[in-house]
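hey
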């Protein structure tokens, strides 16, 4: 029997919300590029769109559920525990629909049993979930299936009393939720951001001369460890998991590093008694990274635009990958493209906002475009239109009008 206070599969209102979803997120220009083998030539500008980009299934589902929730509960107060996804346009639209974000203006204390609370695609911590359930409000759970898969792996580690080593950003909503799964299932965790941090863990496992002392280790990873973490005890049995939007090659390398360290410490014959690992990078993240490589390796890109929220991990990783192939600019909307002479963008490594002059060459130019898994087609289309506009080509993202195409 279904629980009326807990909803995962929606309210059967897809047909009712279809029109507003298309209005908010559809792009005729993106459809046109797909029809033209992901390439558009207009004047002296050629735009090449990655073959996998933008909204993934999990994001589609989360956005659909949020819109269905508003449709189903037109008179209820609706909250969401955090950004539903890392995209400013999508989150702004939810605010415009009257959905309140828990945080500074509204807190858990404001939630009553008469309200509805949406759980975002990243999931929530077990403590937050328990607190919301205690309120007796309706919960609409949009947690991505790929995230749930990571949690299942962590529970498998817990059955063998393995510590969870999580490749991710310790402050990211998804990683915090995954850490809470480890704690709730009675196992320690440590979060590593990159291979450098992973190597510090491996040195501790191996007992390398000159490795960090237990005290120094706990100080270095202070914000990324479970309470009471004991490096000498808790790194004897390790299961590797990851934030689903991390760079897949790095996650796999970290797993190999940890496995090799445990093998060196305990021997090949005992490795399986001390190490577990599953590749839990989501398929959509992998697909977009593969398409980024395909776009870059095809060559001849003069500029690469990576579109998505500045706090979107999968978008930042696409930008980092793109730097191998062409000058790369991570932007969140068409408004960042000021002119041929000026673009505002986000440094994926420095994580700072920048402004670059003379970013778009004159004359014949090939512009590569991709977008993170939380970026709507509408935003992608608007960016492409804006790039053409600053080169004097006005498409207006309206394919019903004649297009000045070469």
């Amino acid at each position: 029997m279904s629980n009326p206070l807990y909803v995962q599969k929606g309210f059967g209102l897809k047909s009712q919300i279809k029109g507003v979803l298309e209005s908010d997120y559809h792009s005729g220009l993106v459809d046109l590029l797909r029809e033209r083998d992901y390439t558009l030539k207009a004047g002296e500008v050629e735009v090449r769109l990655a073959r996998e980009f933008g909204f993934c299934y999990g994001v589609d589902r989360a956005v659909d559920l949020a819109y269905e929730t508003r449709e189903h509960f037109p008179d209820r107060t609706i909250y969401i525990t955090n950004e539903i996804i890392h995209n400013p346009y999508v989150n702004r639209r939810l605010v415009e629909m009257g959905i309140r974000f828990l945080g500074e203006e509204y807190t858990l204390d404001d939630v009553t049993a008469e309200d509805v609370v949406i759980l975002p695609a990243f999931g929530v911590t077990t403590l937050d979930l328990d607190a919301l359930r205690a309120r007796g409000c309706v919960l609409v759970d949009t947690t991505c299936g790929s995230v749930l898969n990571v949690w299942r792996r962590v529970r498998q580690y817990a059955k063998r009393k393995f510590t969870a080593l999580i490749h991710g950003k310790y402050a990211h909503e998804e990683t915090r939720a995954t850490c809470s799964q480890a704690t709730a299932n009675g196992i320690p965790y440590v979060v590593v951001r990159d291979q450098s941090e992973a190597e510090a863990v491996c040195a501790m496992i191996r007992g390398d001369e000159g490795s960090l002392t237990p005290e120094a280790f706990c100080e270095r990873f202070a914000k990324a460890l479970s309470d009471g973490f004991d490096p000498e005890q808790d790194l004897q049995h390790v299961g590797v998991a990851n934030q689903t939007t991390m760079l897949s090659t790095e996650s796999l390398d970290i797993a190999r590093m940890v496995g090799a360290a445990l093998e060196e410490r305990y021997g090949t014959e005992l490795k399986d008694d001390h190490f577990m690992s599953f590749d839990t990078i989501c398929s959509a993240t992998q697909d977009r990274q593969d398409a980024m490589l395909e776009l870059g390796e095809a060559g001849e890109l003069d500029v690469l635009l990576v579109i998505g929220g500045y706090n979107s991990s999968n978008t930042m990783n696409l930008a980092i990958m793109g730097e191998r192939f062409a000058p790369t600019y991570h932007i969140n909307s068409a408004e960042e493209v000021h002119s041929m002479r000026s673009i505002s963008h986000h440094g994926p490594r420095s994580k700072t906002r920048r402004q670059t002059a003379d970013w778009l060459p004159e004359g014949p130019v090939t512009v590569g475009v991709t977008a993170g898994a939380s970026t709507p087609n509408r935003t992608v289309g608007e960016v492409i239109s804006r790039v053409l506009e600053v080169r004097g080509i006005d498409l207006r993202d309206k394919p019903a009008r004649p297009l000045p195409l070469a």
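Residues 397-406 have pLDDT under 50 and may be disordered. Residues 248-266 form the longest helix (19 residues).
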